[in-house]
Amino acid sequence: MFYGSERLLYTRINPLARQYIFDKLERRFQYNITEIFNTLDFDDSNIDTWSTLCSQLSNGIMSIIGHINVDDFDWISDFCSTYQVPFLSLTNNYNDLKNNFSISLMPDIIPALTSVLRRYQITELVYLYDHTCGAHRLKQLMQVQVSNSTQYLNILSRFLDDPDDAYDLLQNIEIITNTPTRPVLSTDSNNKKTTGRYIVLDFYSFDTYRIIMDKIKHRGMTTSDYHYILLS
To answer: Is 227 a residue whose pLDDT tops 90?
Structure first.
């Protein structure tokens, strides 16, 4: 089940790779597996989502693979728990998993980001995002920020509204990260503490990454002082 054009995120996976997984499941569980795509508009009042799900169950659906908004995860997770239908999420919902019938196929990247921050003793970063999924990960990072699992960390979050009109936003990032007394990066292997401008990019689509990176290059924000971390 997919919302609007998000079906492309799944169909982008190599068909041979998908078929390989299906063949393994068929041999192990002796099921006949067939892909059935449903593209839904959850905002359309004329569509009864519950009836659609129940209809799929009556047709012998054994699991649901979906790319959904984090705000919609609770109700579909409860549905799968009630009817014991495995739900494979294509989004990062680790903190929202409440039963044994839901699992996320996306790796949890916040612990990896936290490890990088601790290892290099990064105390300030800019978090640039453009979607609710990015806001969800930002919330996870802020929870780490207030815990004792990491050193002092100053997070400067910025929301990207329009990637085609991002020059003012990039200029703002350049200004707020411009510290005149910023020291040079340390190359001493015994001293892991590094300084510079650390910018996390958490965007919903590859096209946004391409557009923003082109604008970053155009603004000259590519010197050795800049360090970009791409989360998705």
So the answer is: yes
| Domain boundaries along the sequence of the chain | 2-104, 110-230
Strand ranges across the sheet with 124-129: 154-159, 124-129, 197-202, 226-230
Distance CA 73, CA 189 (A): 44
DSSP letter at 28 equals: H
CA distances to 43, 96, 128, 171, 232 from 104, rounded to whole Å, are: 24, 10, 24, 36, 14
Tens-digit pLDDT profile for residues 49-101: 667 667 766 766 667 776 666 666 667 777 777 777 777 776 665 555 555 66
Which residue shows structure tokens 């041999």?
27
In contact, 47 and 41? CB cutoff 8 Å: yes
Topology (CATH level 3) of domain 110-230: Rossmann fold (3.40.50)
Q: What is the pLDDT of residues 162-190, one digit of tens each?
A: 999 999 999 999 999 987 544 444 445 45
User: What three-state secondary structure class fits 65?
Assistant: strand
Beta pairing, strands 124-129 & 87-89 = unpaired
- φ, ψ dihedrals at 110, nearest 5°: -65, -45
> Contact, 209 vs 136, CB < 8 A?
no
pLDDT of residue 163: 94
